[in-house]
Amino acid sequence: MLEKLFSFLSQDVAIDLGTANTLVYVRGKGVVANEPSVVAVQRDARGVRIPKAVGKAAKEMLGKTPGSIEAIRPIKDGVIADFEIAEKLITHFIGRVHNTRSLARPRAVIAVPHGITEVERRAVRESAEAAGCSQVYLIEEAMAAAIGADLPIHEPGGNMIVDIGGGTTGIAVISLLGSVFSKSVRVGGDVMDEAIVNYLKRRYNMLVGERTAEQIKIAIGSAYPDGELRSMMVKGRDLVQGVPRTIEVTSDEVREALRDPIRAIVDGVLFALEQTPPELASDIIDKGIVLAGGGALIRNLDVIIREETGLPVMIAENPLQAVVLGSGRVLDNFDVLRQVLF
What we know:
This protein folds into three domains: 123 residues, Nucleotidyltransferase, domain 5, CATH 3.30.420; 35 residues, no CATH class; 166 residues, 2-Layer Sandwich (Nucleotidyltransferase, domain 5), CATH 3.30.420. α9 packs across α11. Strands 3-2-1-9-10 form a five-stranded mixed sheet, with helices on both faces. The chain is of the alpha+beta class. It starts with a helix and ends in a 5-residue tail after the last helix. It is flat.
């Protein structure tokens, strides 16, 4: 009986239900899934949406599907925008974790942005319950990222984390397992991609898709000049002549395109520092600011935040997985860390 109980508990999952990617942590196994938060669906004769692909396979279809198939991203700005498709997304990952064990009903810890409404929280809970989870706990993404980045959040001292995701940037000052200040800025990787699309449209009269914009951002995007000029060839559609076209884009141009989103993140950090009690602010001077999330990997983002704040800025050891690893540690140390859940 005891062995069965341990077997059941080992299937508990932590989910980083991100705008761009969904990551799943299984208790006792670590991170077992990391795929785009995209579902490709096809409508049948009655109009019912039937999943055709999920994750990487579905993302490959973005912007390339025929009329009968639609590639949907059910998470917008870190919260569920399409309940039905989000449920199918969660069900897919839960099913992968448990394989054929359809009777398994794991507990789940799901990371959500700070400031989401009660309606949005309920949507997350109900999606996970409909996907087969027996109990659903929520944790703020910034708190999860701080735990995943190994910050000493249980100590009486200020720890500042900036988690830059696909839809939102979570900024928090944490002490004694609680958020002294927490803020969610609706700026993330998606807004940066959109800024690149709009910049190329204005400057070159050329339209590129969001996948191409993301590739540009990753390849040559930067937040602060470093004296090195990078470039890449970009393919798109000429908006004047309507034909395919190839242009060369430089890192200086991409930095100009990203200026407003980067400024919004920096302003959010400055505002958080203004709201931090003096005693904790002195701790942050010593410990610095830790960056997590995929956006933390943008070249020299740490440099511009360091320039603007005058504080040490570090990137988490594993920024892409910090949130899901932190959520997983809550599962592993549930009795100790339960108070960070809501």
